[in-house]
Amino acid sequence: MIRPDEGGAGPRRGRLTVYLGAAPGVGKTYAMLDEAHRRLSRGTDVVVGFVEDHGRLATAALLEGLEVLPRQVLTHRGSEFTELDVPAVLARAPQVVMIDELAHTNVPGSVHAKRWQDVHDLLAAGIDVVTTVNVQHLESLNDDVEAITGVKQRETVPDHVVRDADQIQLVDLAPEALRRRLAHGNVYRAEQIDASLTQYFRVGNLTALRELALLWLADRVDDALTTYRRDHRIESPWPARERVVVAVTGGPEGDTLLRRGARIAQRAAGSELLAVHVLATDGLPSAPPARIAEQRALVESLGGTFHTVVGEDVPSAVVDFARGVNATMIVVGVSRRSRWKEAVRESNGTEIARLAGMIDVHLVTHERARAGSRRTGRGSALSGPRRTAGWVVALLGPVLLTLLLSAMGELVSLPTDLMLFLALTVLVALVGGLWPAIVSAVVGFLLLNWFFTLPTGKLTIAEPENALALGVFLLVAAGVASVVDLAARRTTEAFRARAEASALAAISRSVLSGEDTAAALVARLRETFTLEAVSLLAKSGSGWEVLATDGVAPALDPEAAQAVLVVDDERVLALTGRVLPASDRRVLEAFASQVGIVLEQERLRAQAEQARILGQADATRTALLAAVSHDLRTPLATIRASVDGLTSTDLDLDDADRTALVGTLEESTARLERLIDNLLDLSRLQTGSVRPVLRATSLDEIVPFAVEGYPPGAVVLDVPDDLPLVHTDPGLLERVVANLVSNAVRHAKAGSPVVVGSVVVGNDVVVRVVDDGPGVPDDVKEHMFAAFQRLGDTSGTGLGLGLAVADGLATAVGAELSVEDTPGGGLTMLVTVPLAETAA
To answer: Where does the Histidine kinase domain start and stop, copy by copy (predicted)?
Structure first.
């Protein structure tokens, strides 16, 4: 049922309200149900679509007095699950529906894979939805949460789903208060409290998660403010947050401006620092790219961001950018131009202050202020032969044209003479550039005046009209020559800039992707600049060590090179073949920087690998020592005691006693054998000795053998006979399932069987090992597959290797091991194995 809009213009979309929390237990569900009671008291038609009380009495009490819709019951892999019944909610058509856990993943067989998609359908039908979500379930924060807590959240919701909500309510609780709630049993069951307090719910974790929630919500509020200002066409900035924009030109004063802007931004909490560089509309760099890159790195090190905008007028572009980001202050440097130049045209800083309006402008002095800008000489962009040809045409062309026109006599008039000389000047400009064209114009002007302008034979002009024509001729010739020279120069600069950008982009891409080595970059440097040889040298005692070379006869010492680039304090690049112009220096320096980055990456990778190997070896050694001292000694002591009892001549044992001792001996021997097998498997996995033989096989050949040896009724098999073949190593997968079954049998309730089943899901077959034991908290599940961890098991009956070995072997055979809660309590281990036809 779709509700019509109040204006009758079409269907009304429901409103979404989200209660956002930093961690489980802060009271999101409680606040949502409290809101339901408030709306119900105001006469709103409110129902509860799905609420999970997790055994919390206060939450369950709030459900009383509310209409709770029945849930949809789904059967998956032999077990029953309940989910939100979307068709039932649509049929009931309430004004508001309460739905808990927005990031929840639905059981296969549901209408949608995720609950937020169910909510989308209800909103489209015009039903308002109130829901809950934790900050750790937001997709963009998933990696940050894992880095903080060590737990990867498997259930996530796209950020835009929450950002697009009509209302977001932050449910906040101080870390100490949340830990008290947890300790009092108001969040988790009693057996989960200690582990939760010492792991996920540490004060540091909760504080960091709380900060993430506040910052994420602050960004959303900032987005809403920006949208409101745009929709209402509010151009003047609203100082809701301090934003400092620093205008940089790439000049030497930029570092001073950035540091001053950073100090200003640090005066207020939550401030932002933004640097902006205006690029000319022709796209060509107005400052050395290397200098811009340095200032970009400086901004990022100061915690700010660097932005490049294109604009024809620098002050207007800076002010427009500042208004667009809702800046409160613009930091700009005092002009480097002298005062007499400012008298002709005001400086950028002065013009920015005039245009800024309500934005504060902070003018910063520096060492280069009022020093004047040094104009660098520039050569012609044309080649040498072309310039020579231009001078020849400029000197001989006017003379030859004068002889030709003189021979024609009165057949041509003065206007035609002017047009022909102008065409000659344009030709000279196209061939030789600016100065040959100027000379050609002047010579042509003099010849026209002497030979073709009355009175002839004199450098005087009788008619004012002729004087004007000659003057226009000279100006047009000079203007055309200047435009041609400028176009040639810009073309050369554009080609060069494009080539440099392409080369730098290529090496940056390869370095960031980890594809290039130092030797590859050395070869690319030689190829790019057509050098004879390039060598990478490192200081070694009193001499130099060659790290990489490319080309013929490379320099083995910096003294033998024609150019030397410094990579760092210990290494240099030696170039031989030709002397490179100064204009190539910035690209060469970029190459040197990339070589330094590659060398540093190689060093860090080597150190990380060495540290990983040493860490694994140390952890294994420590665990083995603990195992030998306890876990291995216990079965050995039992075996020794049983053997002594059986062989002793001092004891009078009957048949029952001997049977009991033999049984104990067998049990301890089997336990010792399992421990040794797991240790050997773990050693093989860590050394990379496992070599799986993958082939198409049936689970009928694997699963039954993995559950042998258990008492009748301890394990129940539910493996259909018509399952398709899987692509795996049968022997190794059998060990995986056997370890999982052993773990499940050890933790299942007494008298309750462990169920081992399998089902086809998409292109995979999923083997499920289900127990009804105590289960594992969500924040501990990620550590289940680490070696030498019993995860709260204090029985001392194992090394904690079974799941680690199972995970390693599953990875080796191309399977994936995961875990989920068993409905009603317990744990379900999932082994996802690809189908044989999919692998083929």
So the answer is: 627-837
- Cα separation, 1 vs 89, in Å, equals 10
Helix, strand, or coil (residue 308) = strand
Query: What angle in degrees, to the nearest 10, is found between the helix axes of 414-432 and 464-512?
Result: 20
Of the pLDDT bands very low, low, confident and very high (cuts 50, 70, 90), residue 350 is: confident
- What are all long-range contacts of 758-761, with beta carbons under 8 Å and residues at least 24 apart? 758/699, 758/703, 758/718, 758/719, 758/720, 758/723, 759/77, 759/720, 760/723, 760/724, 760/835, 761/108, 761/832
Burial of 599-622, coded b for 16+ CB within 10 Å and e otherwise, reads bebeeeeeeeeeeeeeeeeeebee
Structure tokens at 234: 């509010």
Residue (of 644, 711, 636) closest to 668 by Cα position: 636
Bridge-based pairing state of the strands 533-540 and 543-551: antiparallel
**Which segment of 122-131, 159-168, 183-192, 394-403 scores lowest on mean pLDDT?**
183-192
Q: Are 209 and 224 in contact (CB under 8 A)?
A: no
Residue 604's contacts (CB-CB under 8 Å, 6 or more residues apart) are none
Contact 159, 139 (CB under 8 A): yes
Q: How many CB atoms lie within 10 A of CB 804?
A: 21
The label of the residue with tokens 């956002």 reads: 20
pLDDT of residue 280 exceeding 70:
no
What is the Rg, in whole angstroms, of the alpha carbon atoms belonging to the chain?
A: 40
Could you give the maximum distance between any two Cα atoms of the chain, in Å? 153
C-alpha to C-alpha distance for 20 and 169, rounded to whole angstroms = 6
Q: How far apart (Å, rounded) are the C-alpha atoms in residues 51 and 29? A: 8
Residue pLDDT, tens place only, 715-730:
998 888 888 999 898 8
Q: How far apart are CA 351 and CA 333, in angstroms?
A: 12
Q: Which residue carries 């300790």 as its tokens?
A: 183
pLDDT tens digit string along 741-778? 888 888 888 888 999 999 888 888 999 999 988 888 87
Helices (H), 687-818: 703-706, 730-747, 802-812
**Cβ contact 576:554 at 8 Å:** yes
DSSP 39-88: HHHTT--EEEEE---TT-HHHHHHTTTSEEPPPEEEEETTEEEEE--HHH
Q: What is the DSSP letter of 141?
A: G
Distance of CA 780 to the CA centre of its chain: 26
Contact in structure between 766 and 832 (CB atoms under 8 Å)? yes
d(CA 294, CA 248): 12
Per-residue pLDDT band at 620 (split at 50, 70, 90): low
Q: How long a stretch of residues is the chain? A: 840
DSSP H stretches of helix in 93-131: 115-124
How far apart CA 145 and CA 7 sit, in angstroms, is 45
Decide if 697 contacts 705 (C-beta within 8 A).
no
Degrees to nearest 5, angle at CA 169 with 163 and 170: 100
Give the phi and the psi of residue 127 in degrees, each rounded to 5: -95, 130
In this structure, what token pair is assigned to residue 383? Answer: 């080649």
3-state secondary structure of 33: helix
CA 455 to chain centre: 80
User: How large a percentage of the chain has pLDDT more than 70?
Assistant: 73
Kindly report whether the global pTM for this prediction surpasses the value 0.70.
Answer: no
CA distance 478 to 439: 9
- Local structure of 213: helix, strand or coil: helix
259 half-sphere exposure, CB direction, 13 A CA radius: 7
Q: What single DSSP character describes residue 155?
A: -
Nearest alpha-carbon partner for 756 in 808, 831, 658: 831
Q: What is the pLDDT of residues 789-824, one digit of tens each?
A: 554 444 444 444 557 767 777 887 888 888 888 887
Cβ(747)–Cβ(773) below 8 Å: yes
> DSSP alpha helices (H): ranges in 51-200?
57-62, 86-92, 115-124, 142-149, 159-163, 175-183, 190-198
Q: The tokens of 318 are what?
A: 């800076």
